[in-house]
Design brief:
heterodimer; A: alpha/beta; Rossmann fold; eight-stranded mixed β-sheet; four-stranded antiparallel β-sheet; B: mainly alpha; MetI-like fold
């Protein structure tokens, strides 16, 4: 999966390193990340806060603020084209047109002083060279598709006139309006309540099957992952620690970190007075990563070797990869 | 902005008015003080434009029967030391105030916006270098630097306009820069980049509409200031050269010399200045409140909740 070149893959990220140079020194936000997404697939990138999820997404869009951030090395092959080698103007043509992106907070990612019509038609005007009238019609069509009632009227409203869930629907419409091959959803449901979350994810899933758009969902919500992702990549401290099809990951996790994450999810089928298990300790400072496995300080299974070298991502099953020296014995 | 809203008003039926009409209606309905300000601005504009028809006498016409005359039925506001009708001079003075005020303020706002957006958005070295030059400019006392510039350029209305525009434009760039720095950190700027907008497009389409409120404030606070400073310059002999009737010149020249003998010479231009300054400020405040969608409260763009519900029933 990860390292093989395959025409079926919309996106292949190879050994990506994105570093930030701050007063603390070099922060390795993304440190050798490799993964790929197939056409029409939905891949989840899971991990706790500050593990490099969002940075890896912004790297794909080449939107890392410089300074202090810089993509040090790696390849990002989008349909065979290395995004790190194209010019800024070519990149502008890819953003919004072939790769769409949804940000975390819909309230702040819509421009408050522009009507949503203006914001929706902008990428149509940029990429498809549509005139105002056609762009408006197209916008209305998309708004209907994402389930905005009364779209013809509301298209000329301002963002503040919509609820959070509606705003996120509008963001989804904005990201999908040019029918991109890849949609990056950076925590698309963090700021809305649970029922709206479910609706939005359902919507994303429908649109995916309708358009065949591959979706990269970045989230820390394992519930989201379980229901909507085909495959899951678990990230820890800038690296991939485990990658597996969703059901495999849930039934047979191989990496101690994944096991810890799954154990800490509250479950209805267990006794109510059971204490939630937690992963002890804090994630490492990305500016001072340990020499060995990044997780070794918090890992209950660590052995001497874990302190000395970083475990590579190795195949442990069908489409199942784990970066732990002991995955074979632990995952049984 | 106005054109898109105008288009939609045709399709969406009578409920949606064109942008300018909408602003006008809301101004009258929601902002009584702003409406008064607007009326004052309108009167100023009309007076300035139609001065030739409104004034009873020519601005420099000397009446030998009227030296220092108090207000009479013939000379409604009295006359000055040369026997010139004060009402006529104030009416023509309005024209000069309008021209100087509008042109100099427009120049200053364009200069401020350009410098402010560039330095605020690009940041880094551009910001550092340009803003240090702004610092250097602001270190000089404003009046002195303007007097020096006018000495170089020579006296005249357009020289005054350019100098005032530059002076206020450079100083005002700080206000715009601050606003831009606040705006550019917003996620929607990233979102705009994520749909493929170029930097000029982001500045023009996404940043500029967001800083319209401070720009309008800048315009409406600058305009009375510009009119006042023009008066100061005229007072010092660096402004509009006489015998052109600038309010500032009237207030300071003859007005000061004859203050006790004929106070009306100083009072009327002063009153005119005060009313205009007040009117522009009120009007600008109200327009800012109406135009900026972020300041729209419960009574939104499309009327009250009640009227909206009524419309929904139809």
């Amino acid at each position: 999966m990860a390292a093989t070149t395959n025409n079926e893959n919309v996106l292949e990220v190879k050994d990506l390193h994105t570093h930030f140079y701050v007063e603390d020194g070099e922060v390795r936000a993304v440190d050798g990340l490799t993964y790929s997404i197939r056409r029409g697939e939905s891949l989840a990138l899971v991990g706790e806060s500050a593990c490099g999820k969002s940075v890896s997404a912004l790297s794909i869009m080449r939107l890392i603020p410089y300074p202090p951030g810089i993509i040090v090395s790696g390849e990002i092959l989008f349909q065979g084209q290395d995004l790190l080698k194209v010019s800024e103007s070519e990149m502008r043509h890819i953003r919004g047109n072939r790769i769409g992106m949804i940000f975390q907070e819909p309230m702040t990612s819509l421009n408050p002083v522009l009507t949503i019509e203006r914001q929706l038609s902008e990428s149509l005007e940029l990429h498809r060279k549509l005139n105002k009238k056609d762009a408006k019609e197209e916008s209305i069509k998309l708004l209907r598709l994402v389930g905005l009632p009364d779209a013809e009227k509301r298209v000329s409203d301002y963002p503040y006139q919509f609820s959070g869930g509606m705003q996120q629907r509008i963001m989804i419409a904005m990201a999908l309006i040019c029918n991109p091959d890849l949609l990056i959803a950076d925590e698309p449901t963090t700021s809305v309540d649970v029922t709206v979350q479910a609706q939005l994810l359902e919507l994303l899933d429908n649109l995916r099957s309708q358009f065949g758009t591959a979706i990269l969902i970045i989230t820390h919500n394992l519930g989201v992952v379980a229901r909507y992702a085909d495959r899951v990549n678990v990230m820890y401290a800038g690296r991939l620690v485990e990658s597996a099809p969703t059901d495999v990951l849930y039934s047979k996790p191989q990496h101690p970190y994944t096991m810890g994450l799954l154990a800490s999810v509250p479950r209805l089928d267990l006794p109510r007075n059971r204490k939630l298990s937690v992963i002890d300790g804090l994630p490492p400072n990305l500016a001072r990563l340990p020499k060995g496995c990044n997780f070794c300080t918090r890992c209950t299974y660590s052995i001497d070797r874990c302190l000395e070298e970083k475990p590579p991502l190795e195949k442990v099953g069908e489409e199942h990869y784990s970066a732990c020296f002991r995955s074979g014995e632990l995952g049984k | 902005m106005s054109s898109t809203t105008a288009n939609s008003s045709i399709e969406a039926g009578p409920k949606r008015r064109s942008f300018l009409v909408d602003v006008g209606v809301r101004l009258i309905r929601e902002k009584p003080l702003g409406t008064i300000g607007g009326v004052i601005v309108l009167i100023l504009l009309i007076t300035g434009i139609f001065a030739d028809f409104l004034a009873p006498f020519g601005m420099n016409e000397i009446h030998s029967d009227a030296f220092l005359s108090a207000p009479t039925s013939k000379y409604l506001l009295g006359a000055d030391n040369l026997g010139r009708d004060l009402l006529s001079r104030i009416i023509f003075g309005a024209r000069i105030s309008v021209i100087v005020g509008l042109c100099a303020t427009t120049i200053s706002v364009i200069v401020s916006t350009f410098i402010g957006i560039m330095t605020g958005y690009l940041g880094g070295k551009v910001d550092l270098v340009v803003q240090r030059m702004v610092d250097a400019w602001m270190c000089f006392p404003g009046l002195i630097i303007m007097m020096v510039l006018i000495t170089i350029l020579g006296p005249g209305m357009w020289q005054v306009i350019i100098v005032l525009g530059l002076q206020y434009g450079i100083a005002g760039s700080r206000v715009v820069r601050g606003a831009v720095i606040g705006i550019k950190e917003n996620v929607y700027v990233d979102a705009a980049r994520a749909i493929g907008c170029s930097t000029p497009r982001i500045l023009w389409q996404h940043i500029l509409p967001n800083i319209l409120a401070p720009i309008i404030i800048l315009f409406t606070t600058r305009m009375p200031a510009v009119i006042l400073v023009e008066a100061s310059l005229s007072f010092l002999g660096f402004g509009i050269p006489p015998p052109a009737p600038s309010w500032g010149g009237m207030l300071s020249g003859a007005g000061r010399s004859y203050m006790f003998m004929a106070p009306w010479i100083a009072i009327w231009p002063g009153v005119a200045l005060s009313i205009v300054v007040y009117g522009i400020n009120m009007f600008g405040d109200a327009i800012r409140d109406i135009v900026d969608p972020r300041l729209r409260g419960g009574v939104g763009r499309y009327g009250t909740a009640k009227s909206r519900a009524a419309a929904a029933e139809k």
